[in-house]
Design brief:
- This is Transglycosylase SLT domain-containing protein.
- The protein has a single domain, classed as Lysozyme.
- The protein has 14 helices and four strands.
- α2 packs across α14.
- It is globular, with a radius of gyration of 18 Å.
Length: 246
């Protein structure tokens, strides 16, 4: 697995300690036991045999986002910007509101549509959510050559994110995306701070957080990105993590 982490990190042009830090953080705080890679793969095969779908009250998400409220999102060029747009429209036009006679829950997009197993929303070695995998679809496919995922094929998506050799690409893509967001939006390089990238891996929505950080810096130019408890652990144990990678 360590060799695989190094190889994948090189593909996505990131320090492998970012990947290891994200995985360690997820399993320290967000998962009660560290399953073996073989165990994840067996679960993936089980998920692949179950007829599941990403839907709310019988309406599948791929159909839901064809509504006119999402027209501008379909013009986005990448899977990341497109699914981020879907999220934003959900938050502003549907979440907690009644639309067309249907009352939608006051829940985030990923909770409303992306928990078909009714227990938790993140899976696999890197604890990837289905929505995160769909966002990273284009980057992973272009860099790794893996087939693109589809919101119409929930079982196939789970099979991918539960396979450690494949899911690690999505972990790397999430971290690469966070680094890109802070560089492009706030002109700050976080590529040398695994605590920050791990924090963003834990919290999600790096582009929105980068915008918020940029706005704060306008009044407080010396303000630096801060780790949460998750990122603090990674930086506190950074020497041990690097030793594992030797």
């Amino acid at each position: 697995m360590i060799r695989n982490i190094k190889q994948v990190a090189a593909l996505y042009n990131i320090d492998p300690v970012h990947i290891l830090g994200a995985i360690v953080g997820e399993h320290t705080y967000n998962y009660d036991s560290l399953d073996s890679a073989q165990g994840y793969y067996m679960k993936a095969l089980q998920y692949a045999r179950i007829r599941i779908s990403f839907q709310y009250e019988g309406e599948e998400v791929w159909s839901f986002v064809k509504r006119p409220q999402f027209n501008k999102c379909r013009q986005e060029e990448t899977s990341n910007s497109r699914w981020r747009c879907y999220e934003l429209v959900w938050n502003t036009r549907f979440m907690g509101k009644t639309v067309g006679g249907t009352r939608y829950p006051h829940e985030p997009f990923h909770r409303a549509f992306f928990r078909p197993m009714y227990a938790g929303q993140s899976f696999g070695l890197g604890q990837i959510t289905p929505l995160t995998a769909l966002k990273m679809n284009d980057m992973v496919s272009s860099i790794s050559g893996l087939p693109k995922l589809s919101s119409k094929d929930a079982s196939g998506l789970y099979k991918t994110v539960m396979d450690p050799n494949k899911s690690i690409h999505y972990t790397a893509a999430v971290l690469r995306d966070a680094i890109n967001a802070y560089k492009q939006v706030a002109n700050v390089d976080i590529s040398r701070n695994p605590g920050i990238t791990s924090t963003l891996y834990n919290l999600g929505n790096p582009w929105e957080r980068a915008i918020s950080y940029r706005n704060k810096r306008r009044t407080r130019p010396s303000h630096l990105p801060r780790e949460n408890y998750y990122g603090w652990l990674i930086n506190e144990r950074i020497d041990e993590l690097r030793a594992v990678l030797q």
